[in-house]
Amino acid sequence: MDSIVSAASVIAAGLAVGLAAIGPGIGQGSAAANAVEGIARQPEVEGKIRGTLLLSLAFMESLTIYGLVVALSLLFANPYVG
């Protein structure tokens, strides 16, 4: 039973990191593309767009970090493994 729980924890940790990276990765690419497009249209507001982009990228990246925290807790602080 213990080996099944350990194997499931490793698989779940891999899925947590993988799935947590897909959404923010797509969102970051879309946000960067739209920011570059906005800067190309209105170069005079480049500083404001860049600041907003960096803030939104930080928020998106935090979702990936949460997935990493879940994966690490499954691997190293799993209460189901004896």
Note the topology:
Elements: H1 2-41, H2 46-76
Give structural attributes.
82 residues; F1FO ATP Synthase; 2 helices; mainly alpha; rod-shaped
User: If you consult CATH, what is the topology?
Assistant: F1FO ATP Synthase
Question: By CATH's scheme, which homologous superfamily applies?
Answer: F1F0 ATP synthase subunit C
Q: List the domain count as a whole number.
A: 1
The residue fraction in helices comes out at: over 70%
**Largest sheet descriptor:** none
Low-pLDDT runs of 5+ residues are none
CATH architecture: Up-down Bundle
What number is the mean pLDDT?
91
Write down the overall geometry.
rod-shaped
Number of strands: 0
- What is the succession of H and E elements? HH
Distance between the termini: 10 Å
Percentage beta strand:
under 5%
Quickly name the level 1 CATH class: Mainly Alpha
Site (Reversibly protonated during proton transport): 61
Main location: plastid
GO cellular component, one term: chloroplast thylakoid membrane
Subcellular location: Plastid, Chloroplast thylakoid membrane
